Amino acid sequence: MSIPGLGQITPQAAAATTIRTIALQPLWEWRFEVPRRSAGITVRLVTGSAERDGTPLAVNRTYTFVRTKSKLLTWHGCTLEVNGDCDAYVAEYAAPEDSPMVSYLNLHFALKERRDHVRAMSGAAQNRALLGPRVMVCGPKNSGKTSLARTLVAYATRMGAQPLVASVDPGEGLLSLPGTMSAAVFGTVMDVEDPAGGFGVRGTPSTGPSTVPVKLPIVYYFGREKVEDDGPFWRELVSKLAGSARVKMDEVDDVRCTGLVLDTPAVAANQSGIDILVHAAREFAVNVVVVLGSAGMNAELQRRLAHEKTRFGEPITVLLLDKSEGVAERDKAWMRGVGEEAIKEYFFGDPKRTLSPFTHSVTYEELTVLKVPDESEYFEGQQVLIPAEISPEMSNWTLAVMDASVNDPPEIIRQAAILGFIAIADVDEERRRVKFLSPVSGRLGNRPLVWGRWPEPYINLVG
Ligand SMILES: Nc1ncnc2c1ncn2[C@@H]1O[C@H](COP(=O)(O)OP(=O)(O)OP(=O)(O)O)[C@@H](O)[C@H]1O
Predict the structure, then answer these.
(1) Of the ranges 52-56, 150-154, 167-171, 190-194, which one carries the lowest mean pLDDT score?
(2) Domain segments of the chain as ranges
(3) Ligand 1 contacts CB of residue 322 (under 6 A)
(4) CA torsion 4→69→11→420, rounded to 10°?
(5) Neighbours of 306 (CB within 10 A)
(6) Which GO annotations describe the biological process of this protein (predicted)?
(7) Percent of the chain at pLDDT above 90?
(8) Which of 252, 302, 351, 428 can pair with 306 through a Cys bridge, CB separation 3.0 to 4.6 Å?
């Protein structure tokens, strides 16, 4: 069966002639890039052990990778069988001190020690106020921040812990579409085949069964790509998300003892970049700051944070780790593609799990849409949401469904968590009707919709 809009998702069988065997020695990485439009590759771990960003591959299982730039690392050596075309090379490390992965593993063990300590103290003193480490990963663009965050989360869950993961980088989205900022508890294994390595929308299907246990994130809608597009609002949402994260941590003892891993947007090591990180660190009461590959950023954060205490009176450790030279460049076109695929997966699922979204047709009057204003529409420099006229210009945009009422003031709506997304398929001006896709069959009721500026509109999902 062919599903409109899903055309590029289904990987076709890779050409049989391209099967090859790759032998990796301990610490080596197989780095690969599968282009967006390619059929994808399959990889089988034949012997030994290998992992993608901390999540292990099972021996003899065939994994399919589409539109991915990533690596498979082996700690003890392995043999891989790869089928299909992709750009790839092997990074060889002769000694442990040459690989940044060793310092990431050491960081994991240091965090584990802190978690064990908090667990022991909590049990002995019956003290539920103690928190596990809150780790913020930061660095310049393409320093491997998200990969390290994912790896730390994967190692923690492999040891049975349940970290809370949060992202304040609206460019990409964690378990949600780009343009959002979210947090979720990761208590189970991540999906190795997910193009986003387990942080993508696949981890939290809007409907239908899933191949890995689903995560239930709290999501806020920023509606723009970069922090600088609306710094004051980003700061507000960071504070809201930090508050919600704290509630999540307090709900489950193991989450509280495991602590938080916080992914941040790429910033420059200048005053405004450091201010962004310091705000996130303070709001999330971060007590471990990991800086990847920037001595300048490390020095600035040391200066600003190393003498501060968290609101719980703990010292803040700032540490500089090398970035991996394998981190891949992702240009604007790639990131746009990532956003498009995320939207498609949100509504239609992925090759392993097809979703069937519902098409609704409503009158103009049944929808309340507010929009993130253009710069020309700022009100006294303040970016409040403004009512949006329904027009064909809205076609192909995804709109956030807010957990608020249409009667709430715009400031409240803007800061509300989101329930999900709809995609506008068609606006019929003559009949004053709007056709949209939704992952659920129910009506929107009196939920307001917010029309942001990111992710940008995509092809008509209903063909
Ligand atoms: N050692 C590596 N070998 C190959 N690919 C890698 C390696 N490390 C990271 N990557 C890939 O490089 C890309 C960028 O990495 P990542 O998202 O972790 O960087 P980032 O610093 O978070 O990026 P941004 O600045 O855009 O937020 C990702 O596709 C990731 O899977």
Answers:
(1) 190-194
(2) 16-95, 99-321, 357-451
(3) no
(4) -30
(5) 14
(6) mRNA 3'-end processing; tRNA splicing, via endonucleolytic cleavage and ligation
(7) 70
(8) 302
Complex ipTM, two decimals? 0.99
266 Cβ below 6 A of ligand 1: yes
Say if residue 69 carries a ligand binding annotation: yes
Identify the pLDDT of residue 211. Answer: 56
Q: Which atom of ligand 1 is nearest to the CA of 101?
A: 1
Q: Which CATH code of 2.40.30.330, 2.40.50.840, 3.40.109.10, 3.40.190.10 fits the domain covering 357-451?
A: 2.40.30.330
CA 295 to chain centre: 26
The count of other CB atoms within 10 Å of the CB of residue 369 is 21
Cβ of 52 closer than 6 Å to ligand 1, yes or no, is no
Confidence check: pLDDT of 348 > 50: yes
Q: Which CATH architecture has domain 99-321?
A: 3-Layer(aba) Sandwich (3.40)
Per-residue model confidence as pLDDT tens digits over 15-34? 445 899 999 999 999 999 99
Q: Which two tokens stand for residue 21?
A: 């065997």
Query: At residue 294, does pLDDT exceed 50?
Result: yes
For ligand 1, say whether the CB of 200 is within 6 Å of any of its atoms: no
Testing ligand 1's pocket by substitution, the residue of 28, 29, 30, 70 carrying the most ligand atoms inside 8 A of its CB is 70
The pLDDT of residue 367 is 93
Position 2 scores a pLDDT of: 32
Contact 155, 245 (CB under 8 A): no
Q: Is 376 annotated as a binding residue?
A: no
The angle, 0 to 180 degrees and rounded to 10, between the axes of the packed helices 271-283 and 295-305 is 50
Give the ligand 1 atom nearest the CA of 266: 25
Which atom of ligand 1 lies closest to the CA of 328?
Answer: 12
Assess whether the C-beta atom of 147 lies below 6 angstroms from ligand 1: yes
CATH 1.10.443.10 fits 16-95, yes or no: no
Q: Which residues contact 442 (CB under 8 A, 6 or more apart)?
A: none
The pLDDT confidence band at residue 96, using thresholds 50, 70 and 90, is confident
Q: Which burial class, exposed, middle or buried, applies to 229 when counting CB atoms under 10 A from its CB (0-12, 13-18, 19+)?
A: middle
Q: Do 20 and 44 contact (CB within 8 A), yes or no?
A: no
